[in-house]
């Protein structure tokens, strides 16, 4: 899967970090670092982290081209 964090929007509140620590982490006081291509096993955690962000800075792509289309 793929994620993008809009670092212009991110305020470094870090609510997201404990929800998906395998993928999101803080560098220093407020700089967010992340894995843009996390393993799909983390999907649920990442969706929770994205939902927790007060400024909706975490964008999660529904699926990547090499993943099968979800069933209708
Ligand atoms: S919760 Fe949102 S604003 Fe806070 S660190 Fe995570 S992405 Fe940035």
UniProtKB/TrEMBL annotation:
It comes from the Bacteria. Pfam families: Fer4_13 (PF13370). This is Ferredoxin. It comes from Nocardia africana.
